[in-house]
């Protein structure tokens, strides 16, 4: 019997989705991809943010190469596998619910493709990134050429794939692969704790604003400047119709809202 890949709990409006295959460094097989797609396709309506983390010392080592080797798929068969990964990770990125990823250890190959679908990425100091597909005689198939390349630029992705080099957490942050680093040896709070703090803060935003941010910005980036500006105006008009907009603006006008400062 296949052990579930995802373990899900709830903390108020935050769903905590945990990759639960630590004995395989949370490598992703076909069943795991199907689980990811199924859960993110039907996020409970009361959930405002998803916190995605992983059991064990590693976030995700990517494609289950043992399964890939043993199945010896044809080109057409693996094309269908890739399309399944694309659908699953599209659900993460475009579901309309913000996803905060907490990473540690290996974020490699398909694991980096998975992390790239999240909207906010928090890394433990142990985190490292790599795209070793070139050294394995294969190619990316889970969306890296679209998502990861947009984060780090296509040129940097080409270099990482050709050389197979490992990028440490500090270079990864400079490249945009993570937004926050938590180094407990230097007194930082644990990455999981910061991730939950950020998730709760995001959950406090207006739901319609969150939806617009995580569904609109990437799509506008695919448009021409003219179409993008027009779409931005339409989204703003839609968000303006939210039921709590006037109350939130009233808090600002009457000085009840927090001020934007370096400390906030």
UniProtKB/TrEMBL annotation:
The name this protein goes by in its record: Crotonase/enoyl-CoA hydratase family protein
PROSITE patterns: ENOYL_COA_HYDRATASE
Entry keywords, A to Z: Fatty acid metabolism, Isomerase, Lipid metabolism
Pathway entry: Lipid metabolism; fatty acid beta-oxidation
GO molecular function: isomerase activity
NCBIfam families found in the cross-reference section: PRK08150.1
Recorded family membership: Belongs to the enoyl-CoA hydratase/isomerase family.
Taxonomic classification: Bacteria, Pseudomonadati, Pseudomonadota, Alphaproteobacteria, Rhodobacterales
């Amino acid at each position: 019997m296949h052990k579930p890949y995802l373990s899900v709990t709830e903390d108020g409006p935050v769903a905590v989705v945990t990759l639960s295959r630590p004995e395989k460094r949370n490598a992703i097989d076909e069943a795991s991809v199907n689980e990811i797609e199924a859960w993110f396709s039907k996020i409970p309506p009361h959930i405002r943010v998803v916190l995605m983390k992983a059991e064990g010392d590693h976030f995700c080592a990517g494609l289950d190469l043992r399964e890939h080797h043993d199945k010896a798929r044809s080109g057409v068969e693996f094309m269908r596998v890739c399309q399944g990964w694309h659908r699953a990770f599209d659900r993460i990125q475009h579901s309309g619910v913000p996803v905060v990823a907490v990473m540690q250890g290996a974020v490699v190959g398909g694991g980096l493709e998975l992390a790239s679908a999240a909207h906010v990425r928090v890394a433990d100091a142990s985190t490292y990134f790599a795209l070793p597909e070139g050294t394995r005689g294969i190619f990316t198939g889970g969306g890296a050429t679209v998502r990861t390349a947009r984060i780090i630029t296509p040129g940097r992705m080409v270099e990482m794939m050709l050389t197979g080099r490992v990028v440490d957490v500090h270079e990864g942050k400079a490249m945009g692969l993570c937004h926050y680093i938590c180094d407990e040896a230097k007194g930082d709070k644990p990455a999981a704790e910061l991730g939950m703090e950020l998730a709760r803060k995001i959950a406090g935003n207006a739901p319609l604003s969150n939806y617009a941010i995580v569904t609109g910005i990437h799509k506008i980036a695919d448009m021409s400047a003219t179409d993008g500006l027009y779409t931005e105006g339409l989204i703003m008009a839609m968000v303006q119709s939210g039921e709590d907009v006037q109350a939130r603006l009233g808090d600002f006008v009457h000085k009840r809202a927090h001020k934007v400062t370096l400390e906030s």
